[in-house]
């Protein structure tokens, strides 16, 4: 067991009608950890995070924050959590300073405490010079900073951040990521994102769910140990024939499609005994069949490989109503 756990999920389960979004999920996050919380769309991430903030009660199991159970009556536990949902519910017609003051009132903070908290979060989130602006006039990056400021306003010990960099430009992504790293010096943080390099950059440990179930929990380096050598190839090809050709290569096994793109582009991966020999055979075979090879590369043990390996069997087993929207896929594949 992790010592001094600030977040504890014990057998969490939640259903929406006939859809079982989360199934017996258990893990812990220790004080001071910055943990990546990952899964394909529809895996149950948002539902799990809502149960960990007390905004949704589980059908089974229990969630504990800062040693206090989140049971619907636990005001103390909810006060210990700052939550930034993926779609930040801001009052866009309000000015930033009035909105944050309102947040403080909701937390039951007196005027002096609200003033001190305001100064603290404006400094922490680099909002100086923007507090008189109406929220709807801000860029998305600055709206995200306001969302973080509201999550920090009551000075919680735990932060749960759902896709904090979604839709931001590269510069804003770096700034929000750097802000999260700074906050991790004094907070326990659970970070959900689809940007896997971002997780590799800032997190030492990841928790992965798929199909509403826990499929991995550990340090990134530990989870990648033992992965078989592999190569991937991106081609314009017919899927069934591509998988058959790769599966017939001597020294290759477990051919699968890991990404799809426009104009018939497919990215396939195979495990290999000798990656150099099999890569040469794959290149010759696909070239002889007239397939256009766009990329052929050796796959090193990365978080992306861990993610694909651990989620590919369960990625579409269930759908989390909170994590689906038109145009979003409910599987583990990425595009090429």
Under the CATH scheme, the architecture of the largest domain is 3-Layer(aba) Sandwich
Q: What is the count of structural domains?
A: 2
The CATH superfamily of the largest domain turns out to be P-loop containing nucleotide triphosphate hydrolases
Our measurement of the CA-to-CA distance between the termini, rounded to an integer number of angstroms, reads 40 Å
Keywords: ATP-binding, Hydrolase, Nucleotide-binding, Transport
Family: Belongs to the ABC transporter superfamily.
GO molecular function: ATP binding; ATP hydrolysis activity
Enzyme class: hydrolase
Notes on the protein architecture:
- This protein is an alpha/beta fold.
- It has 2 domains: 5-220, Rossmann fold (3-Layer(aba) Sandwich); 224-335, Malonyl-CoA ACP transacylase, ACP-binding (Alpha-Beta Plaits, 2-Layer Sandwich), CATH 3.30.70.250.
- The protein has 11 helices and 15 strands.
- The chain has helices at 45-53, 75-79, 96-106, 111-124, 140-152, 170-183, 196-202, 220-224, 239-247, 275-288, 303-311; strands spanning 5-16, 19-30, 34-38, 60-65, 68-69, 81-84, 158-162, 188-192, 205-210, 213-219, 230-236, 252-260, 265-272, 292-299, 334-335.
- It has a 6-stranded mixed beta sheet, with helices on both faces.
- A hairpin with a 4-residue loop joins β12 and β13 (265-272).
- Residues 315-319 and 324-333 have low confidence and may be disordered.
- Belongs to the ABC transporter superfamily.
Provide a short characterization of the protein structure.
33% of the residues lie in helices and 29% in strands.
């Amino acid at each position: 067991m992790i010592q001094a756990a600030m977040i504890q999920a014990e057998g969490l389960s939640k259903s929406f009608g006939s859809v079982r979004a989360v199934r017996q999920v258990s893990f812990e996050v220790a004080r001071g950890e910055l943990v990546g919380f990952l899964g394909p769309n529809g895996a149950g991430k948002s539902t799990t995070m809502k149960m960990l903030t007390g905004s949704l009660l589980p059908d089974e199991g229990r969630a504990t924050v800062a040693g206090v159970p989140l049971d619907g009556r636990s005001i103390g536990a909810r006060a210990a959590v700052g939550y930034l949902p993926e779609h930040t519910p801001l009052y866009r017609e309000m000015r930033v300073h009035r909105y944050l003051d309102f947040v403080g009132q909701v937390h039951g903070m007196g005027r002096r405490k609200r003033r001190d908290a305001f100064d603290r979060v404006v400094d922490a989130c680099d909002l100086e010079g923007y507090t008189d602006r109406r929220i709807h006039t801000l860029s998305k990056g600055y709206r995200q900073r306001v969302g973080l400021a509201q999550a920090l306003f009551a000075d919680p010990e735990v932060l749960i951040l759902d896709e904090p960099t979604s839709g931001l430009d590269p510069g804003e992504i770096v700034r929000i990521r750097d802000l999260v790293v700074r906050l991790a010096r004094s907070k326990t943080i659970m970070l959900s994102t689809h940007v896997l390099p971002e997780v590799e950059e800032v997190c030492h440990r990841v928790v992965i769910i798929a199909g509403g179930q826990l499929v991995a929990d550990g340090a990134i380096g530990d989870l990648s140990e033992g992965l078989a050598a592999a190569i991937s190839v991106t081609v314009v090809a017919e899927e069934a024939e591509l998988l058959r050709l790769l599966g017939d290569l001597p020294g290759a096994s477990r051919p699968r499609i890991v990404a799809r793109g426009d104009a018939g582009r497919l990215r396939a991966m195979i495990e290999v005994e000798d990656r150099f020999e099999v890569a040469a055979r794959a290149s010759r075979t696909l070239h002889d069949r007239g397939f256009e090879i766009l990329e052929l590369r050796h796959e090193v043990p990365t978080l992306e490989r861990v993610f694909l390996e651990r989620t590919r069997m369960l990625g579409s087993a269930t759908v989390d109503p909170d994590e689906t929207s038109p145009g979003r896929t409910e599987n583990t594949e990425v595009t090429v």
